[in-house]
Amino acid sequence: LERDALFRKKHNIHVSGSNIPSPLQSFTELKLRHNCKSYLLRNLGELGFKELTPIQRQAIPVLLSGRECFACAPTGSGKTFAFVCPILMKLERASKDGIRAVILCPTHELAAQTTRECKKLVKGKKFYIKLMTKQLTKSADFSQQPCDILISTPYRVHYAVRKRKLDLSKVEYLVLDEADKLFELGLVKQVDAVVKACSNPSILRSLFSATLPDTVEELARTIMHDAVRIIIGRKNS
Ligand code: ADP
Ligand code: MG
Predict the structure, then answer these.
(1) ipTM value > 0.85
(2) What secondary structure does DSSP assign to 91-119, as a single string?
(3) Closest ligand to residue 117's CA
(4) Is pLDDT of 236 > 70?
(5) For residue 151, what are the β-bridge partners?
(6) Which of 50, 51, 53, 120 gets mutated to test ligand 1 (max ligand atoms within 8 A of its CB)?
(7) Are 27 and 65 in contact (CB under 8 A)?
(8) If you measure from the C-alpha of residue 19 to the centroid of ligand 1, how many angstroms do you get, rounded to a whole number?
(9) Which residue ranges have their beta carbon within 6 Å of ligand 1?
């Protein structure tokens, strides 16, 4: 569509792939067209989010449409909300049926930061969001506790899976955040193991990164199917 192309140009959004959903114009469109719940819009208001950032405009409708994506956007450009928003909208409410979403971050500090951001977004709404800690990897009853979204380094999830403390077979959403750093830190083996452990055939995977070196792009292409590629600005700036 001509209109989409112009809008993307205006916001410096570059996409490749087939049948890519239109970028979002506004939070109002998120509400009216995608049925975003009022608790989420209210929390965004409280956080001072007035306009969507470019990565949010494109990645949110792609993920909501059930397409996988890998995306490159600068640090500080709002990537967290770009992947958490579709997860919250799709999961709808808390459940006790096992872990439904996993977000992998390169370091425990980044995982803790992402957990804090998620918790702000779900304020006033019941959702089980858990940061994987050292104690949790060892706790015998981890899988008995409700958890909608698990946020962790690949190392800790992989460890817990190996020790059979964690069942990822029902995971519907898997996010690899800061994928360039996952590579730099040599965590690809653990990431691969977690990707394999998330064995639900209808899983939706996504990858977010500040830069997109060939290694990361290759990983994205090997683990995803018919993924949409989204670049904000330039690829490795
Ligand atoms: P990135 O992961 O791309 O480095 P973050 O997701 O950590 O960026 O977001 C950086 C900051 O911008 C956070 O404090 C976040 O709350 C804020 N932010 C995200 N989206 C918006 C928005 N649409 N409007 C205003 N602030 C936003
Ligand atoms: Mg980030």
Answers:
(1) yes
(2) H-S--SSS--EEEE-SSHHHHHHHHHHHH
(3) 1
(4) no
(5) 103, 131
(6) 53
(7) no
(8) 27
(9) 47-49, 51-53, 56, 73, 75-81
Q: Residue 235 pLDDT > 80, yes or no? A: no
The rounded Cα 154 to chain-centroid distance in angstroms is 14
- Could you tell which of 80, 151, 207 is best to mutate to test the pocket of ligand 1, judged by most ligand atoms within 8 Å of the CB? 80
Q: Which atom of ligand 1 is nearest to the CA of 120?
A: 16
CB 225 within 8 A of CB 16: no
CA nearest neighbour of 69 among 89, 55, 81: 55
| Greatest extent of the chain over all pairs of C-alpha atoms, in Å | 55
Give the 3-state secondary structure percentages of the chain, helix then strand then coil, rounded to 5.
Answer: 45, 15, 40
Residue nearest (by alpha carbon) to ligand 1 atom 15: 78
Tokens 């770009």 belong to residue: 82
Question: Model's pTM, two decimal places?
Answer: 0.97
Separation CA 137–CA 123 (nearest Å): 26
**Structure token digits, residue 129:** 């969001």
d(CA 96, CA 115): 19
Q: Are strands 13-16 and 173-176 parallel, antiparallel or unpaired?
A: unpaired
Q: What is the pLDDT of residue 140?
A: 67
Distance CA 147, CA 99 (A): 5
Nearest ligand to the CA of 44 is 1
